[in-house]
UniProtKB/TrEMBL annotation:
The lineage of its organism: Bacteria, Pseudomonadati, Gemmatimonadota, Gemmatimonadia, Gemmatimonadales. PANTHER family: ALKALINE PHOSPHATASE LIKE PROTEIN, DEDA FAMILY PROTEIN. It comes from the Bacteria. It comes from Gemmatimonas aurantiaca (strain DSM 14586 / JCM 11422 / NBRC 100505 / T-27). Residues 61-163 form the VTT domain. One of its GO terms (cellular component) is plasma membrane. InterPro entries: DedA_domain, VTT_dom. Keywords: Membrane, Transmembrane, Transmembrane helix. The chain crosses the membrane at residues 28-52, 59-79, 132-151. This is Hypothetical membrane protein.
Length: 190
């Protein structure tokens, strides 16, 4: 296995410092909340590197990341639900949707909408758009929240399991040769 570039070695050391500073839960929760309702990007942007830096905290960080993204997605669901009155009114008539078409579509989503939510949490589909659409179209909140929680927990706990059972050791093995062969000088204080 080729050694890791020096910047990755320094990056992992910095993540370990952050993880030890006591801010990892707040950072992971804050990013999960912001990513869940505002920013595009990976929900695991901070959770995964911080879990790799301190694998013994991987499961706790997974739960914190899940809480942040679920809270953000629920906010978007309620935003979409508020937009429903506008969608059912003049916009729907302008687009040619009748009240009966909305009722039929809601019934279909009540039956299958949770699967779309679950798929969006496990795939590159945008959970933000799915959350807004679920609220706007009228997916029942319990089905939405259950599918969202199940999908997010499955994803983050699976990643935490990978970190705890080999992922962190693989990163350490990859980074360690860079410390011993490429950089023989002692690390600089930051």
């Amino acid at each position: 296995m080729s050694p890791a570039p020096r910047f990755l070695t320094r990056f992992l050391a910095r993540l370990q410092q952050w993880a030890d500073a006591g801010w990892s839960n707040a950072v992971v929760l804050g990013w999960g909340l912001l990513q869940g309702c505002i920013f595009p990007g990976l929900a695991d942007l901070f959770f995964l590197p911080l879990a790799l830096a301190r694998p013994e905290r991987a499961y706790r960080l997974a739960l914190v990341a899940t809480a942040g993204t679920v809270i953000g997605s629920v906010l978007l669901y309620w935003l979409g639900a508020e937009a429903l009155s506008v969608l059912e009114g003049p916009i729907a008539r302008w687009l040619g949707f009748s009240p009966d078409a909305f009722t039929e579509y809601r019934a279909r989503l009540a039956k299958f909408g949770a699967w779309a939510i679950l798929a969006s949490t496990m795939s590159p589909l945008s959970t933000k758009l799915t959350s807004i659409a679920s609220g706007a179209i009228g997916v029942p909140f319990v089905a939405f929240a259950g599918a969202l929680l199940a999908g997010r927990l499955t994803r983050t706990l699976a990643l935490a399991w990978l970190v705890r059972h080999g992922g962190a050791q693989a990163v350490a093995r990859w980074v360690r040769p860079a410390n011993t062969t490429v950089d023989s000088a002692p690390p600089r204080a930051s």
